[in-house]
Amino acid sequence: EKAGLEKDVAELSTEKKKLDKEKKSLESKVGHLECQTIALDAQRKQMRVANEEIRQANSELYSEHTRLTEANSSLAAENKSLMATSSKLSDDVARLQMQKLSNEANGDFQKYKADIARYFPDLEDLLRWGRYCTHIGFPDRFTQRILAQEKVGFAGSLFSSEHNQTFSTEGSYAKLERDPKEKYRFILTIDGINVFQWFRDMARKLLEKLGFQPKEPRQSRSIRR
Asked: Cβ of 37: how many Cβ atoms within 10 Å?
């Protein structure tokens, strides 16, 4: 789990650095987050020291168990009982230690997520839109500019999951804009209209070109579903 956490931290740090280049206004917040990361590293070091103390304590308990077993070797029945009790105690200690480590790791991860939500409230929705841009066919270099809320011109094909269809354009522009109704939320537009409506318009034009009567449009989807 620690390895997974470190991997997530590395990925988020990489994404943050990319966003920093486009959003200089976040530099002060990044510095604050780095301070938090240093503090987390210090906590992890303290955890490693505490775990080492626990391992040493377990080693001492094991040595004491061995001494008691040798002292009572002449009492076979009592020795078996002591061995069974000691084995159960060791299992309980191991389970408690594993539970403690799991709780500490989960606490660190939850704290990290809370720090992200506190200092970078836009990041959660930006990550969703980043994945969506990749899904519909934007290359990474375009996605990065879109997430920086630049107006990005493009030509080519985009894939609509709603229609299970690829639509082509000879010249359009994409822009990520803040949702006026929800704080810390964004809306992706293409040629000035919501991306989902843009796909529907493209599908309608294709059907009309093929001579079919288009059906009534379905209700708008949200990327946050």
From this structure: 14
Q: Which residue has the tokens 């080492």?
A: 52
Please give the DSSP secondary-structure letter assigned to residue 173: E
CA-wise closest residue to 125 among 169, 88, 177, 165 = 177
Range list of H helices, 137-194: 140-147
40, burial (CB in 10 Å: exposed 0-12, middle 13-18, buried 19+): middle
Q: Residue 113 and residue 108: Cα distance in Å, rounded?
A: 9
Give the closest residue to 130 by CA, choosing from 115, 144, 116, 119. 144
The candidate with the shortest Cα–Cα distance to 165, out of 201, 130, 191, is 201
| Sole residue written with tokens 């159960």 | 88
CB atoms within 10 A of CB 2: 13
Q: Which residue type, as a one-letter code, is found at position 193?
A: I
SS (H, E, C) 77-92: HHHHHHHHHHHHHHHH
Q: How confident is the model at residue 225 (pLDDT cuts 50, 70, 90)?
A: very low
Q: 6-31 pLDDT, tens per residue?
A: 777 788 888 877 766 666 665 565 56
| Phi, psi (deg, nearest 5) at residue 160 | -105, 115
Question: Facing residues of 178 across strands?
Answer: 186
Q: Please give the average per-residue pLDDT across 49-72, as a whole number.
A: 83
User: Cα–Cα distance between 197 and 208 in angstroms, integer?
Assistant: 16
